[in-house]
């Protein structure tokens, strides 16, 4: 592939990612304002249903974002998801911190466990992917 075509393609992808990030920020801002006004919770919708709806939307957005990434950018994407998982571990540790045994503590432990598996597995996959680009010794 021609380096200029590759650079143009990367530039277009970066522009599209920037637009997507702006749209996501706008949606997040709108949702925050809605919740602050009590529109989502006060209109008879249960809190669980609202949070579940956010989770489902995040799954769809994540799916489409990951599938639109070119193969050359998968290694950096893996590094970013490992960083996100490390933030999940911090949140899980905070949730698992209280002394009493309740649902939040159990879910915090589950979050720490699953995020740990994700981080270590991600590093293994990233290492294998980067090994494919190394020159082989003769």
Oligomeric state, counting identical vs distinct chains: single chain
Query: What's the total helix number?
Result: 5
Helix content bin: over 70%
- Uncertain stretches: none
Strand count, sense and barrel status of the largest sheet are: none
| Number of strand elements | 0
Task: Compute the separation of the termini in Å.
Answer: 26 Å
Helix/strand/pairing category? mainly alpha
The fraction of residues in strands falls at under 5%
Q: How big is the Rg?
A: 20 Å
Question: In sequence order, what are the helices and strands, one letter per element?
Answer: HHHHH
Secondary-structure map:
Blueprint: H1 3-36, H2 39-42, H3 47-67, H4 74-96, H5 103-133
What does this entry look like structurally?
The structure is a single chain. This protein has 138 residues and is mainly α. The chain is built from five helices and no strands. The protein is flat, with a radius of gyration of 20 Å.
Summarize this entry quickly:
This protein has helices at 3-36, 39-42, 47-67, 74-96, 103-133.
List its salient traits:
mainly alpha; 5 helices; flat; 138 residues
């Amino acid at each position: 592939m021609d380096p200029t075509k590759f650079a143009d393609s990367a530039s277009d992808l970066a522009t599209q990612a920037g637009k997507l990030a702006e749209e996501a920020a706008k949606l997040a801002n709108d949702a925050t304002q809605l919740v602050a006004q009590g529109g989502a919770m006060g209109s008879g919708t249960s809190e669980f249903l609202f949070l579940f709806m956010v989770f489902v939307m995040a799954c769809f957005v994540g799916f489409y974002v990951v599938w639109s990434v070119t193969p050359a950018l998968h290694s950096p994407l893996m590094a970013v998801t490992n960083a996100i998982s490390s933030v999940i571990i911090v949140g899980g540790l905070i949730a698992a911190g209280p002394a009493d045994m309740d649902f939040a503590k159990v879910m915090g432990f589950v979050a720490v466990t699953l995020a740990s598996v994700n981080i270590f597995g991600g590093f293994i996959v990233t290492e294998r992917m980067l090994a494919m680009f190394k020159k082989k010794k003769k």
